[in-house]
Amino acid sequence: MIKYVLPLAAAGALAAAIFTSPFAHAERAVPIPAPAHDVQPTVKPNVAVLAGGCFWGMEAVFERVKGVTNVTAGYAGGTAATATYDQVSTETTRHAEAIRVSYDPRVVSYGTLLRIYFSVAHDPTTLDRQGPDRGTSYRSAIFPQNAAQRAVAAAYITQLGQAKVYGRPIVTKIETGGFYPAEAYHQHFFDKNPNHPYIVAWDKPKVAAFKAAFPTLAK
């Protein structure tokens, strides 16, 4: 789905389409256990790269987590040469829309970030889609930045699968690849465009669900 900033009339039409879409629904967190294993706070870098659908909503959720110092929207898994929104939207570049989360491990752990990611930031059971968006660029994927993160992510996926907390199998993949920041107009889009129809329909409910499910983790 192309998520451009639209003129008022077009935005109204898009809002009607989104709100009447069979995929539109109130977001709610899935109750899941904390990871049994976590990254020690001395392990660096203290950066997480996560993909889970449109980066606008992912960014909005993680920007509101205590201990997160910066979130950048971008593209992961492809090459620098094709890391632009127009090219990624063709679904031929192997990128995923992703976020790079910088965090203070003294306040929030990598495992806690993964818990938010799996519980409320996106649906880890839908293959190559999130909400109204379709394509491999909207896939569920974790891009570990070191061996410790990779081990914790793999163990947590197994743990959640064994706990059967979802009605369907987890499809989240653990991948490798660089991260490339998205265009400036995509950065902090939620805060800059609070009345955008996509934000109202999909991302505001997600942020509200995060705050309701994890009040002690919210800024």
Describe the model.
The protein has helices at residues 8-19, 55-62, 85-88, 110-121, 147-163, 189-192, 197-213; strands at residues 47-52, 68-76, 96-103, 129-130, 133-134, 140-143, 173-174, 179-181. The chain has 219 residues and is α+β, with helices and mostly antiparallel strands. It has one domain: Peptide methionine sulphoxide reductase MsrA (Peptide Methionine Sulfoxide Reductase, Chain A, 2-Layer Sandwich). The strands form two sheets. A six-stranded mixed sheet has the order 7-6-1-3-2-8, with helices on one face. The longest helix is centred in the C-terminal third of the chain and has 17 residues, at 147-163. The protein starts with 7 loop residues before the first helix and ends in a 6-residue tail after the last helix. The relative contact order is 0.24.
CATH-defined superfamily: Peptide methionine sulphoxide reductase MsrA
* Proportion of residues in extended strands: 15-25%
Ends apart, CA distance between termini? 30 Å
Count of distinct structural domains: 1
* General shape: globular
The number of helical segments is: 7
Q: Examine the coordinates and then state which fold CATH places here, giving the name of the CATH topology.
A: Peptide Methionine Sulfoxide Reductase, Chain A
Which structural class do you get from the secondary structure elements?
A: alpha+beta
Order of helices and strands: HEHEHEHEEEHEEHH
**Could you give the count of β-strands?**
8
| Spatial order of strands in the largest sheet | 7-6-1-3-2-8
**Low-confidence residue ranges:** 4-26
Helix share bin = 25-40%
Q: Can you tell me the CATH class?
A: Alpha Beta
Mean pLDDT equals 90
